[in-house]
Write a sequence for this structure.
């Protein structure tokens, strides 16, 4: 039995200006993070002549981090942008056609699937791999932008190690914030968990784990005012407490964990998603509710969200696309 509900497709009413005759490709990949490029490497080596559109942020979320130390194969670490450049080169080496452009609309009613790029051009694809990732939500403070990559991060697993033995803060009250705090508590001297309400939204079990940790101090009813620093690095955070007082905590790392938004809007008319927007796939596979359409990386993964897991699902998507194309006559 399918895990997917029968979907009624509503017509996409957004105005679409298109130019000329649509281009037809065998394998279209949308997104240029580790999932998209890995899918491209596998698809290109399988002679699927993939076309990959990079999207709004070429290289994906990793281009906003500094050092990546947990991706296997880089014993001395690698910067996020460097790693993405390497992946891009590797995809191009086998013949992937890497292009600038962003998917702005789609029609997935039947194969060939139609994807509109930059509101202008339609590409028709026999198989489609969606690797559009997720975007971390930020508080929207100027100081947050200023110290991004030099004290402010949205990924404890990626950047926590740089704060070994130091004091840090995590903002957010959900499962992600709880998980990030627990992870950091094993590395850092002290973790302040900043929660705007008088309670946490995280699951009971995660709350209990956080409360049990001696080096996590939960600051309920605290709202971040500004992140402060000296010589370009973070030294503290200013918070407003429930009494309206401004308090300062000395920290060297500030982790934002207030949720992610999967970049699935363009496909949501056709693909089944969870309530947040993560594309649902058949467990253990990148297969969506539409045969021939695959999703990989953070756009379908609310749990692991690592470069290496994204790359793994990208590989799976390309292998499944190849099998799908092999069973059809186009
Ligand atoms: P959630 O949306 O669950 O939680 C976001 C948290 O951030 C809330 O506490 C929210 O506060 C807070 N927040 C939002 N905006 C702001 C802001 N501007 N300032 C301060 N705080 C803010 O996101 P998560 O990423 O934590 O979780 C997403 C989903 O993934 C959930 O379903 C979760 O259960 C799941 N998940 C599961 C895990 C697991 O099972 N191990 C691990 C991680 C995630 P408020 O409560 O006041 O709205």
């Amino acid at each position: 039995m399918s895990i997917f509900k029968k979907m009624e497709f509503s017509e996409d009413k957004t105005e679409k200006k298109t130019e000329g005759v649509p281009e037809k490709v065998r394998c279209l990949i949308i997104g240029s993070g580790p999932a998209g490029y890995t899918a491209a490497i596998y698809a290109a080596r399988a002679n699927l002549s993939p076309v990959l559109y990079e999207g709004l942020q070429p290289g994906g979320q990793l281009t906003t981090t500094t050092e990546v130390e947990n991706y296997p194969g880089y014993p001395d670490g690698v910067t996020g942008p460097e790693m993405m450049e390497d992946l891009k080169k590797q995809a191009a080496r086998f013949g992937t056609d890497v292009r600038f452009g962003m998917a702005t609309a789609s029609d997935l009613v039947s194969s060939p699937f139609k994807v509109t790029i930059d509101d202008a051009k339609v590409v028709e694809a026999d198989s489609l791999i969606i690797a559009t990732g997720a975007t971390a939500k930020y508080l929207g403070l100027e100081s947050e932008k200023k110290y991004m990559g030099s004290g402010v991060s949205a990924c404890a697993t990626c950047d926590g190690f740089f704060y070994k033995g130091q004091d840090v803060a995590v903002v957010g009250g959900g499962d992600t914030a709880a998980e990030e705090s627990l992870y950091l508590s094993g590395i850092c001297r002290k973790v302040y968990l900043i929660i705007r309400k008088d309670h946490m939204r995280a699951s009971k079990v995660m709350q209990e784990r956080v409360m049990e940790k001696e080096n996590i101090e939960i600051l309920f009813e605290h709202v971040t005012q500004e992140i402060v620093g000296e010589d370009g690095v973070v030294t503290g955070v200013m918070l407003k407490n429930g009494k309206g007082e401004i308090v300062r905590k000395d920290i060297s790392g500030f982790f934002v964990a207030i949720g992610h938004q999967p970049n699935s809007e363009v496909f949501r008319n056709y693909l089944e998603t969870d309530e947040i927007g993560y594309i649902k796939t058949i467990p253990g596979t990148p297969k969506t509710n539409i045969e021939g359409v695959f999703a990989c990386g953070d756009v379908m993964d609310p749990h692991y969200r690592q470069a290496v897991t994204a790359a793994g699902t990208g590989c799976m998507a390309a292998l499944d696309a190849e099998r799908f194309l092999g069973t059809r006559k186009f």
In short: Confidence is low (pLDDT under 50) at residues 13-17. The pocket of NDP is lined by residues 139, 171-177, 179, 196-197, 201, 258-260, 302-303 (CB under 6 Å).
